[in-house]
Amino acid sequence: MVVRCVSRWCDWLLPTLCLWAWGGAVLVLVSPGAQDLGFFKRGAGLAANPPTASGAAMPPAKPRVPYYNGRLFTVNSRYHPLIEQVSAIHDVDEALVKAVVQAESAFDSEAVSAQGALGLMQVLPTTAARYSIENLSDPRENLQAGVRHLKRLLNMFQHNVPLALAAYNAGENAVKRFEGIPPYQETLSYVGKVLGLWNLYAREVSLYPPLTLLSQTRAGISG
């Protein structure tokens, strides 16, 4: 009789304990703390930057990028088709251009910086004049100027993306003077942010940037 009661008690207790354990695991995963750690975010646990041609990982970047319903969120995505078109015309990776646009203006075509940089890619009028572009308030012309300038910098620095981004932010002369990324906190943060965004946009469109655009050297970037 005692054995039968113990057996019935075990038959009831074990499923109950399993149910409690399963419920506790679900509560932990959906908690704010778990979400802060990156659970359920698309791309969580993946490398912060694409691999280089030699197989080595780029220096880690820790961008703070907003998500919406598990997808990369941009303030205004109506410019994506235009960005893809202009990028294709000038043979620059569209994911990289989108990353620069988000870092520069958050897709605000009317953005103006304290230094007088304008539009989606925050182009200075003096830079636009180099490419015979005058109307930087027009999104297409702004992208034309910014993408052409970015391509010029990529070619100048042998397709070393971190150096090209540093030059886009701090100027090509500063990169040449320091023979690498200038030790400016703003520039270091900018390069890390754009590299992280580049990775995320590349994953969003299910492609990786061409190896010809990847840095062949490890540049010092703060995390």
How would you describe this structure to a colleague?
It is a single chain. The protein has helices at residues 2-29, 32-36, 80-90, 94-105, 125-130, 139-156, 161-170, 172-178, 185-204, and strands at residues 67-68, 71-72. The protein is globular. A two-stranded antiparallel ribbon has the order 1-2. The chain is built from nine helices and two strands; from the N terminus they run ααββααααααα. The protein folds into two domains: 1-37; 41-213, Orthogonal Bundle (Lysozyme). A hairpin with a 2-residue loop joins β1 and β2. The chain is mostly helical and 223 residues long.
List the helices and strands and how they pair.
Elements: H1 2-29, H2 32-36, E1 67-68, E2 71-72, H3 80-90, H4 94-105, H5 125-130, H6 139-156, H7 161-170, H8 172-178, H9 185-204
Antiparallel strand pairs: 1-2
Helix pairs in contact: 3-4, 3-6, 4-9, 6-7, 7-8, 7-9
List keywords for this structure.
mainly alpha, Lysozyme, 223 residues, 2 domains, single chain, two-stranded antiparallel sheet
